[in-house]
Design goal:
By secondary structure, this protein is mostly helical. It has a domain at about 1-115. The chain is built from eight helices and three strands; from the N terminus they run αββααβααααα. The protein has helices at about 1-15, 65, 80-85, 90-95, 100-110, 115-135, 140-145, 150-160, and strands spanning about 20-30, 40-45, 85-90. A three-stranded mixed beta sheet has the order 2-1-3. The radius of gyration is 19 Å and the shape is globular.
């Protein structure tokens, strides 16, 4: 609790940074995956999935509903000044008390650490890794990266074996 108190005190001293991102808090249950619903915190800014640069990679398999839905963005690496400048989505205001919203947001804000320096280091490292992949030649990508289809098959096998079901080949 002391760490959260320090975060709360830090937030009280920061100036909000204007942003068009809205904070959304939503109960999520993925049938066949989750045993219990959980609370997810994410941001939305009006961007539609079909307008994302990477949408071309799955546009052939995405439904029209998904393509025309507003994109959900992770907020756990966002600077706290930006968090303070975000409005709350109307659906969140209608479903959760102010105390619940603050608690869920604090949890999300501190996922990578309890101070902005630690969170910035994580954000910078992820960006460095992304640039490293972006800068790879096609040959390097084939040698060093694992295609999503292969990863998914391995994850499916792990899930089946952990549930006591025989794993498929």
């Amino acid at each position: 609790m002391e760490a959260y108190q320090l975060v709360f005190d830090t937030l009280s001293s920061l100036a909000p940074q204007e942003t068009k991102m809205r904070v959304c808090v939503e109960k999520v249950f993925r049938e066949g995956i989750d045993e219990e619903p959980y609370i997810e915190v994410f941001g939305k800014d009006g961007t539609l999935n079909k307008n994302l640069p990477d949408f071309r990679h799955f546009s052939k398999t995405a439904s029209k509903e998904f393509a025309n839905s507003e994109t959900s963005f992770a907020l756990d690496l966002v600077p706290w000044e930006e968090w303070l400048g975000m409005e709350l989505d109307p659906s969140t205001l209608g479903a959760y008390s102010g105390h619940d919203i603050v608690a869920h947001c604090l949890w999300e804000m501190t996922f990578f650490g309890f101070d902005q320096k630690t969170i910035k280091e994580q954000r910078d490292e992820l960006r460095r890794r992304a640039r490293e992949v972006d800068d790879m030649t096609e040959d390097e990508r084939k040698r060093k990266l694992i295609p999503w289809e292969q990863v998914r098959k391995k994850l499916d096998k792990l899930a089946e074996s952990s549930e006591g079901k025989p794993a498929k080949n």
